Amino acid sequence: MMKNIKKLLSLLLVLCVLVACFTGCKDNTSTQGGNSTSTVDYVEQTKLNMDSETKKQEVTVKSFIDGDTTHFFVPTELSADGTLKARYMGVNTPESTGKIEEWGKKASNFTKEKLSGATSIIVESDNDQWNVDSTGGRHLVWVWYKPADSEDYRCLNLELIQNGLSISCGTTADRYGDAASKAFQQAKAQQLHVFSGEEDPDFFYGDAYELDLKFLRTNISLYDNTKVAFEGVVTYNNNNSVYVEEYDPETDMYYGMSVYYGYETGELLNILKVGNRVRVVGTVTYYETGGTWQVSGLNYREFKPEDPSNTIKISEGNAASHRETDPAIFASGTMDVETLVSLDGEDTEIKTFDYANLAMSTSVSMKNLTVVDAYTTNNGGDSDGAMTLTCKVGDTFVDVRTIVLYDENGNMLTESNYMNKTIDVKGIVDYFSGSYQIKVFTANDITVH
Predict the structure, then answer these.
(1) Superfamily grouping for domain 209-321
(2) The domain at 362-448 falls in which architecture?
(3) If the chain, 449 residues long, is cut into consecutive pieces of 10 residues, what is the mean pLDDT of each piece?
(4) What is the C-alpha to C-alpha distance for residues 207 and 309, in angstroms, rounded to an integer?
(5) How much is the pTM?
(6) In this structure, what is the dihedral angle of CA atoms 379, 383, 386, 390, given to the nearest 10 degrees?
(7) Could you say which of 3.40.50.150, 1.10.3720.10, 2.40.50.90, 1.20.140.10 is the CATH number of the domain covering 44-195?
């Protein structure tokens, strides 16, 4: 009996050793088609050949857009405006702009981290010429960067794919397509990020559409009576509403939204303080009286701070942009933006917007406006004393609408304080009675020359 027990214990000991060995080796292998294969660093294997026939240009970053799009400064011989809008060859990362997708922020942050720490960046064409994508506005390139602790360049396109941050990998006909395909299959086999089946810790799994403000602003009618979620900085608080804005590097514009909180009290108002960066969750509605869009019906559960449907504070200490704006562009400028055809489809179209329409609810500033006319509200209501100042710069007219303003001594300011004077203003882009205007909330936001 004792011999049998000893044999059994010996057998168990051997099995434990084998299991421990297998477990220790597991992190260095991946299962692909049922076979165990070693992890391969395809990025390390792929080298930049500076003597090849492809076009190459050393660049610096102008602005980060998302995981697979970056704007670079380049010589004017390559691009007349000195900017190359790079679309990464063979890569399609989840969206972190427009409609926000799982792992989109992870991919965007990955690209920003790698390029921010690089000592040199080179963009390379796929053949002997610079090629553009289907939009005609972005160059298709391979992006190489040199880490601070290395003398070799690494291909960021391949690195995104190899880390499971691209949902596709182009074709093997691309210059580095073979390596990209193998890196893609390896990432799938290892179940990295987009292939993990796990929840993205940077994504909110609520019942609202996750959008950025540019996408919401340019497709606003499609989201009528729909719950949405977006991020931005609170710039002003007035009349039971706050204004929230966010910068879009693709168009170099701020986009904003009026957010109506009604008669809410308590912690929600602390979240919506001016200067806070917030994530707003609410319903898109059309404000008939003002002829404008707003978000209302905010979701907030004080005792469930982790609820993905909550409006939350992200950070504090931020400031309004007060983007200095050309009065002529404000009054008559336009911009073409790609928009959705329908909410349930992927088809898009180019739509022309009034510049001021796109800038609605954002903070702007204008200088050297001459006040040529003024009107003061006097109808027995709370807004008695509010003014509309008609201003002129050259041949351009801009209306500045104020709430009731008081000086430092508590005296109400009137038309005489501004009439026939030159002023600088800061305020919010607003819409009233068929025209765009700048709405001013404090006397300090008007400077008289």
Answers:
(1) Nucleic acid-binding proteins (2.40.50.140)
(2) Beta Barrel (2.40)
(3) 42 40 37 57 97 98 95 94 95 91 95 97 97 90 97 97 95 95 97 96 89 96 93 96 96 96 87 96 86 88 76 95 97 93 85 96 97 93 92 96 94 95 97 92 96
(4) 7
(5) 0.80
(6) -70
(7) 2.40.50.90
